[in-house]
Description:
Order of helices and strands: HHEHEHEEEHEHHEE
Number of helices: 7
Shape: globular
Number of domains: 1
Oligomer: single chain
Largest sheet: 8 strands, mixed
CATH class: Alpha Beta
Number of strands: 8
CATH topology: Rossmann fold
Amino acid sequence: xxxxxxxxxxxxxxxxxxxxxxxxxxxxxxxxxxxxxxxxxxxxxxxxxxxxxxxxxxxxxxxxxxxxxxxxxxxxxxxxxxxxxxxxxxxxxxxxxxxxxxxxxxxxxxxxxxxxxxxxxxxxxxxxxxxxxxxxxxxxxxxxxxxxxxxxxxxxxxxxxxxxxxxxxxxxxxxxxxxxxxxxxxxxxxxxxxxxxxxxxxxxxxxxxxxxxxxxx
Length: 217
């Protein structure tokens, strides 16, 4: 990714993170996730891709005391915010790994503390993402890569931008091209997953987001 693209992304993500805090977006996403009936092990391995401030992955750790999390994002400032959010939630730092990664190649990440070190990203019980896939240079390839890293009986959770008017307007504002959700669902099913579309019911997240929960058969 070019330097000017990285600078644009950092500026964009910073304003995005601030907006989420002000509007109570993070809280609504967290409450939504906690209300889902997901069945994964107490020692689950979780990957949160394009993690932003980390709320999705950190919430998935709640109630799973032996779970571990790898959170990746292009923006190092947001990864540090993820670390701060983990501290606020009482999650031990030793259970979380932070990595710099471009969503175009979600299986490759460099350690935030040692940029020359690549993280070992293998198979996961849960892989989550939230409105990040649209920034990939090849959305379909990114989705397939993520799906192939899910363990049998594991979950792929995508809290994606919806196709309602407000969702489309926000996507346009943030230069986020939406892959048609029907196409996304087809890709997921073709990789051997059962897919459930769950409306995001919590305000204000419900204005712009929908959720796909996919479980590998």
